[in-house]
Each structure stands twice: as C-alpha cells, then as structure tokens.
Amino acid sequence: QVKWKGKDLFDLVCRTLGLRETWFFGLQYTIKDTVAWLKMDKKVLDHDVPTEEPVTFHFLAKFYPENAEEELVQEITQHLFFLQVKKQILDEKIYCPPEASVLLASYAVQAKYGDYDPNVHKRGFLAQEELLPKRVINLYQMTPEMWEERITAWYAEHRGRARDEAEMEYLKIAQDLEMYGVNYFAIRNKKGTELLLGVDALGLHIYDPDNRLTPKISFPWNEIRNISYSDKEFTIKPLDKKIDVFKFNSSKLRVNKLILQLCIGNHDLFMRRRKADSLEVQQMKAQAREEKARKQMERQRLAREKQMREEAERTRDELERRLMQLKEEATMANEALMRSEETADLLAEKAQITEEEAKLLAQKAAEAEQEMQRIKATAIRTEEEKRLMEQKVLEAEMLALKMAEESERRAKEADQLKQDLQEARESERRAKQKLLEITSKSSYTQSMNSSTTALPTDLPSFNLISESLSFDFKDTDMKRLSMEIEKEKVEYMEKSKHLQEQLNELKTEIEALKLKERETALDILHNENASRGNSKHNTIKKVSESSS
Fold it and tell me: pTM above 0.70?
C-alpha cells in the first residue's frame, strides 16, 4: 500500500515465509550502481528507489552469524542462508578452493536428491546441475564426467542425512571460508592509498585491493569504542586510547551510510550473542529442539518400516524363487516318470516278442528232431544214398543243436527283459513317490508365500496427512537426546579430522590435472595461506593482536 513503511513490507514477506529470525535479513535494492537497504521506519516510496515499475527488492541476508549451527534456529532460516551462500560461491563472490567446492557440491546434491541410490542416480544425473564455480572447472583438465564421479563419491557417504542436516553441513564448511559474510567497500586512507574495508560479524578489516583473503588490519567489535562519519570521512576509534584513530574516505556519502548501517547491525548482533538469549529466542530454540527430536524419531520409525518392508520383500522373493525351483523339480520328475513308463512299456513289448520267438524256435527244433528220426527210419540201400543220408543227418543234428542254443539264448534274454521290466516299474514307483513329496511341499510354500506377500500391506502407512502426530517428550527422552548430542559432538571432531584428510587426498589427486597458467590471484593467495597453516579465524586473531 502507498502508506506502507519499510517494516510493513518486510513483515509481510517474513509472515509469508513463516520466518521468525527476522534480524538477519533485509530488503535490498540498487540505486545508481550502489546497493542500499530498505529502512524499516521510512515509507517505502519515500526511499530513493528506481522510478521504473515494478520496483524490485531482493529479500537477502544482511547480517551473518558467527556460528551457523548455534545461531540459526529455524529450518527456513537455515535454508535461506544455504541458498544465498551457495549462490555467492557459484558466482565467485566468495572464494572457495577446488577441493572444498567438490565437498560443498556433494552436500548440495544430498539436500536436493536425498540418499544416493545407484539404481536411480545413474551416470550423468548431475549433467544439468550447476554445482562448481566456473573458475574451478576451468582450472583443471577434467571432463564433466570426472567432476561428477568425484562429487558422487562424497555424495554416497552422506547417506541418512535429511535436507536440513545436509544444508547445515554446507554452511558449517562455508562459514570458514575467508570471504564468507564480508561486505567489501573501496576506500582511501589519509595518504590517498586505495584500500578495501571489510565489514562482517567479527569486526572491521582493512585489505589490500589485490588481497581480499588476508586483512592487513583488523578491529574486532569488542575493541571498537566509536564509529562515525562526517560527509565522506569515516572514523574508527579503538577502545584502547593508545592506538591511533583510523580514518578513511569513501567514494559517496550513500556508501558511508550503508557502512554505518552494517556496522551498527553487526555490532548489535555481536553483543547480543554474548548475552543470555531473549525469551523469544529461548522459546524458538526449545521448539527447534523438540521439532528436531520429533523428526529424528520419525526418521527412525520410517527407517524401521523401510527395513521391515525390505526384509518382507526379500523373504517373498526367496519363497518365490524356492517355489519356482520346486516347480522345475516337479516338471523334471514328471518327465522322468513319463520316460520310465515309456521304457517299461517298450521292455514289456520286447519281452513278449522274445518269448514268442523262443517258443517258435523250440517248435522248429522239435520239427527238426522229427525230421531226423524220419530220415533215419527210411534207410537208403545204396552206399551213396547212405552217405548222403549220413551227411543230411549230420546237418540236421547241427541245425538242431543251433536251434537248441538259440532257444536257450532267447530264454535267457526273456528272463533279463523281465528283470529290466521289474526295475523300470520300481523306478516308476519311486518317481511317483518323489512327485507326491514335491506336490505337498509346493502347496505348503504357496500358503507361506500368500501369507508373507500380504505382510507389507499390514505395515504402518507412510502417509502423514491422514492423521495428526503427537509426541510427549518425557525427561528420559530429553536426557537420551542430550547424550546423543554429546556423542554427535565427539563424532563430529573425528569426522572433521577425516574430512580434512579427504580434502587433502582429493587436492593431491587432482593436482596433476591443474593448469597452473589459469590460477587466479586468489588461488595463489589461498595456497600461500594454506602452506603457512593460516585459516580465517587465526589470521584475524594474529592481525588484531599485532595491531594492538
């Protein structure tokens, strides 16, 4: 509305988002290439906003926490900071070394896709994602597939982390980057030397224009007595009166106003962190702890249900596999039985034929014997006839002998066939017995299968909409949660050590693929700081000690 003040518009945005930690945020706009923030007590249209419509404001974090995990209570607050910091890293407004970029990308993937599943997250699933700064990609002779492989390797290790947990891990790593949360302004000292002023949650820092990572001078908020400006001249008065007053000039009066706004807001938050939490913050933290405990219990319940479903499915699959195996065995037994029956029929038929042949041979042998007797009875008088007759008698005797031997052989063969037939029938009986056993097993397995297959449908439903959830947080639950938190702290220290080892390992692995000629000034400065063992916090501490 036309009469609305900045606070009215700001409150509307916060209510729409469900945001209660409003003190970190503001509405930003740009006027004449200079960033400005909407004042809460001034009418929106009375600001020096652009005249073209619609007027665009950006809802952004204006102040940053010292420790994201301790200070950011609401999940929506954490999510907004995650989105803003991620964009600043990808846009290279915050310098991030290559190995840390890969680790942060893996947490961003966990926040978006959930747990890694090789069946779902196949090669190329990150092809369209913007996960690494262009500076990092250009610095190495590595294909997108090679980057994806390294991001996925770390992504797979984050299994079990919910979206809010992955985003918080991202912020915990990002907050240790040298340029995190720092607002830079071009200034000149009394000698006219060009410098940079950095304003952040810890204090004021003076940088060389070519080195935004390591400050030359630092003024922590608790060591500053007064900050003021007159026209374009800005004055910082240290608490220790022995230390010289630091004066500098900015390019525009509007910039001085912005610097003072940021100084006041950061100083207020700095002092507020070192006091007891307000009642509102205490209530928010208590609600956040309860919500975290509830979500943890809900995740554990869902994990148990998922495990039970998977076990039921595995049991069902095993029973189905066993049933198929029994069906195959039954089919093979049926085929064996049919073969046995066919063999028995053939053997019976062959035995019958052999028996008939033996009878026929015996009949022929008897006829030959009769013929021999008749020939002997009809004796031929002449010698020649006698000789011929003797020869015929001899041949008849030999034929009779052969007939007798053949008859005996056929009889033995018939006996053997009878024995084979008996064995075939015994084999047939065994096959029928086995088939009967398999049939009884199959029916038992089917009944088991039907009862097991129905198991998953009886499990608790994943639908959380149909009924409201309520939990009573007893003292024992909170004590157990406290113990778990202490355990998590110990585990975090171990993980931090492991994390640093992993980062160093990745850095060594990809070092051979680096194109040295593409290193930026910030890359070189970061490597020098790393080789000296300098980090963001100990550098600021050393600088502030030396300046005092």
Answer: no
